[in-house]
Amino acid sequence: MTLDDIWLGYPMQEQWLARPSSATYNVPWTYFGTEHGAMMTLPGVRIEQQYDPTRRGWYRKTKQDAQSSPHYSGGGAVLTSAYLDAFGSGMMVTLASAIFQTTPAEPSSCPSTEKPPGCPCSADLDCLVGRCLNSNCSSETLQGVAGADLLYAGFHENVTAAIDSVTAQSSYRCGQKYTVSGSEYETRCYIVDDSAHLVWAEDFLGTDPLNTKAYQAVGLGHYEGAVMRDLVESKQFFT
């Protein structure tokens, strides 16, 4: 671990420790991996020397998203599909975000568009590198990825509550059965990632975590083949 990694990690750890227990009830792991391959976790755990966070799926996916689509994500959060935790916490999803180098001081001159790092901004499109963070154009130097693992049961419950609050008055809310031209239908809800892998599905709740084939890297087409084919053929979704 380099000195820069250490200095970058300290303020993160302070924020992690300041969280109330209610905010971490369903969060068994919080961590930060750096571009140099260093790793910091809470709670602390001994990690094998050969472990390199930059080679992990959550790190690569977050880095790729932040660097390939800055105006879309702004280096924002990435949510993974469901998987089995390697450290024994069961079925979970990961929420991760790219961490960029500290914003430099404001330059002596800031143009009205394509502003360099340090200039004030209100949107990603204002900045040369496409990232407006904390009202200043960000540096394009990635320092690492911070992540939090969420227990799937709690995540499922929160998502279900959010969906229900939005669709409570809808005739086509999740699980609602209805009839069209004499045929019966049921509305089924899913959340998928950009690879069409399921992040949330009603059938996932109660699944045996050891039965990873039932939820890990399961595509939307597994449940809704016709819908997935339609999305691909209409070019609304690419795989």
Describe this structure in words.
- The protein is α+β, with helices and mostly antiparallel strands and 239 residues long.
- The protein is 27% helix and 23% strand.
- The protein has helices at residues 3-17, 21-24, 57-68, 70-73, 152-167, 220-223, 225-233; strands at residues 29-34, 39-42, 77-79, 83-84, 91-100, 132-133, 136-137, 142-151, 177-180, 183-186, 190-192, 198-201.
- The strands form 4 sheets. Strands 1, 2, 3, 4, 5 and 8 form a 6-stranded antiparallel beta sheet that branches. A two-stranded antiparallel sheet has the order 6-7. A two-stranded antiparallel ribbon has the order 9-10.
- β9 and β10 (183-186) form a beta hairpin.
In summary, what is this structure?
Helix content is about 25%, strand content about 25%. The chain has about 240 residues and is of the alpha+beta class.
Write the layout of secondary structure elements.
Layout: H1 3-17, H2 21-24, E1 29-34, E2 39-42, H3 57-68, H4 70-73, E3 77-79, E4 83-84, E5 91-100, E6 132-133, E7 136-137, E8 142-151, H5 152-167, E9 177-180, E10 183-186, E11 190-192, E12 198-201, H6 220-223, H7 225-233
Antiparallel strand pairs: 1-2, 1-8, 3-5, 4-5, 5-8, 6-7, 9-10, 11-12
Q: Keyphrases for this structure?
A:
239 residues, globular, 12 strands, two-stranded antiparallel ribbon, six-stranded antiparallel β-sheet, alpha+beta, 27% helix
Radius of gyration over all CA atoms, rounded: 21 Å
Task: Determine the fraction of residues in helical runs and give it as a percent range.
Answer: 25-40%
Q: What does the overall shape look like? A: globular
Give the integer mean of the pLDDT values: 83
Strand content: 15-25%
Extract low-pLDDT stretches: none
Q: How far is the N terminus from the C terminus?
A: 37 Å
Q: How many beta strands in the DSSP annotation?
A: 12
Q: Give the helix/strand class.
A: alpha+beta
The helix/strand series, from N terminus to C terminus, equals HHEEHHEEEEEEHEEEEHH
Count every helix, treating DSSP H or I runs of 4 or more residues as helices.
7
Main sheet characteristics? 6 strands, antiparallel
